[in-house]
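User: Can you help me understand a structure? I only have the sequence.
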Amino acid sequence: MKAYRAAIERTVRPGDVVADLGSGTGVLGMMCARAGAARVFCVERDAHMVDLARKLACANGLGDRVEFLHSRIEDLTAFPAPVDVLVSETMGAAGLDEGIFQLFSRCASLLPRLPRRVPGRLRVWAAPLAFPELVLRWTLGARVEGLDFSTLAAGLGHIPQVLPVTPAMLLAPPRPLFSGEPGVDAAPERLEAVWDPPPSGVVDGVALWFSADLADGITLANGPRDPDTHWNQLVLPVLPGLAPAAAPFVLEVWPRFVAAAPRWKWRLTWGGLCYEGDPATLDAAGSVAELQPSVSSMYRIRVQCGHWIMSFIS
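Assistant: Let's start by predicting it. Here is the structure, written out as tokens:
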């Protein structure tokens, strides 16, 4: 909130009209009004939250300037007045999770000129990591008091998880996946990064995080080496872990944002092998995600109809 407040005070000018997208409690919109905005439109899809936010605006003496539009941003056809500034905190743990690029683009298309924006630029970072807890979750989840729950546990390999990642878990330097300006650049359809093989240990997943330029000189980031935030980091699991390889690791990511829900698809390839994770497979009967072996591979892991089948290849 301190970073957003500083960015708003640097961006909003007296008399501006501001739109707060996905406003929630309206806290950013109220900051904009306090910074001198003449009108603030808080766009929020949750009716209960709109009622609560109206009360908060009135309690802070800002009810005459902060207005609430009960609507999905995707359903907006116009703003009551031309908007000078777009403000939003629709960033998930990996920055793209809550569709900030799609939402900013939608609103920018409704305006006669490109508004100033908070954030102005968003970067996405990634690094492979060792996270034994992921394998432990899979192992423990497969057996519950003597019952076979492996069908349910299998899905963990296809579910991105928001977890706290520490610098010690990283197996390679972070690589930039994406950099763009919300409202100017389109949402990425595919991201890629390459790392040299880790010197030791297995790869249990890949961590993603963001850094956002809220305004000139004001950056908000949730990386493992940054100050703690409520986001933590997004971890794309690789279960039950990849053996070290002599070839580079290549990560491909397809971020999707459908009906307010992030759906990440990812692929990690190394030394002729491939691991794929896709939450959509959890919705499709008979889907297959396969770790393809080479002649020298140690094992093969196959997910078919939601079941893990492990075989060791000599």
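Now, to help you interpret it: The two ends are 55 Å apart (CA to CA). Residues 128 and 266 are 13 Å apart (CA to CA). Let me know which part you'd like to focus on.
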